[in-house]
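Lay summary

Proteins are chains of building blocks that fold into shapes. Our project writes down both the chain and a compact code for its shape. Here are two examples, one after the other.
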Amino acid sequence: MAFLHTLTRWLRRIAARPAPIPDALWQRTLAHYSFLPPAGSADAARLQRLAAHFLASKEFSGAHGLRVRDHMAVAVAAQACLPLLHLGPPDAPERALVWYGNFVGIVLYPGAALAPRRQRDGAGVVHEWREALLGEAMHGGPLVLSWPAVQRAGLAEDETRSAGCVVIHEFMHKMDMRAAGTADGAPPLPDGFMGAARPREAARLWQRIWSDAYAAHRQQCTLAERFGGAPPWLDTYAAKSPAEFFATACEAHFVQPARFAEEFPSLATALRAFFRQSAP
């Protein structure tokens, strides 16, 4: 009953009419991030509506004296809502925001966030350190983002490397966590995913597609690091775990969809089905 009460309250909150995003600010946001829908398109208008509801449902705060201004919050909202663009009904796209309904806070840092880490090694020695992060998603807790990294979304050093988007990356972890409470690279799948008749069949299909691609990416990373092989196009951070592979692949899928489909055709097909996107 507590879950149903929370869900009902959430749906009422996103159904309320939010304050509109000023058109001038929205146009500047679309122009800054080239992977967002083009201004004047139906997708841009749909995304603007989604982003407005997103802003009404989240609470932004700045760390270390950073003042969160309107253009910063809108930049985060636009990128966070891009994967949800086609997950809601045509007349109420904001219902897709239920994917992000288990947290409220978003914390922006003026640089990298330093997160305390603690680990016990095989000899029983405890090691403590601080890890510099561009973003972090915690189950049920706030989402942390480095504002400079948010601004750099879509930019790559050269065409041999995939461009990143820390906002999409961290919000994909949030979607991933909705299945089991932890990120494992296996988010809840829609009914009939890729023609699957049953949820178990869909889960097996997803696992086969992603595990094969993940193993191949890890192998390419190993060959490049140890034997001087050609480095992979997708960020090597994706080789850290299935969860990071999923989040990093989603970044590339939305930021550079054509190139991602060339590199990972099976993953591109699976992600288009998951996010209910039409074929290119």
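And here is the second example, written the same way.
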Amino acid sequence: MLRLIFVCSVSMPFILYYLFRAGYIDRHDDKYTESDRYKIARRMVGIMKHNGLIKTNVYGKDNLPKNGGYVMYANHQGKYDSLGIISAHENPCTVMIDEKRSHLFLTDQFVTLLKGSRLDKTDMKNQMQTVLNVIAEVKEGRRYIIFPEGGYCHNRNEVHEFMPGAFKCAIKSKSPIIPVALIDSYKPFELTSIRPVTTQVHFLEPLYYEDYKDLNSIQIAKIVRDRIIAAIRDAGK
């Protein structure tokens, strides 16, 4: 949290500028493409990384499909997770996020800029509609980040159980599943320090529809979780 306060303090002129820019883009949506929005979002992340002394090493970019929509499933460690993936992912992508968390300051504007999906966990009907919307968008070629653990309370580099239901977005859209292993992603905003930190983003080998079409969501969740755990373990050797 100390680093977040520090970044906001030293970056305030940039924050105000980009908040204004994001609001303008949202009000004039017809003038801006998804690529335009994503470029702005990545600039915001770049400034935050620079001012926050955060470095993110990226591995496995070649594993990302060149065309079409897909869903990235990542372990969850903290507030930097989505930002780290976005900084590593060159083509436009967005995120599915808990409705309550999505309305925090800066997070709200960032999710709106990326046209992310907000999942209201207190409303089953809303959840179903949100999932259906994401499925339709992935079919149309959008790329999503989803955290199947659901939360990140002091997870650090331990991977908790995945919720099988989170994989419906990929299964129903018959899209590639990209496991993403995050390492030390908790450090930027959980450690009480502003010393330089390095995180890692590993894009792992995809599961294509032909690979998982005969499996149920529980089996798929286990495969993805096991691959992420193995990648974190191997990176620590």
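What can we say about the second shape? The mean pLDDT is 93.
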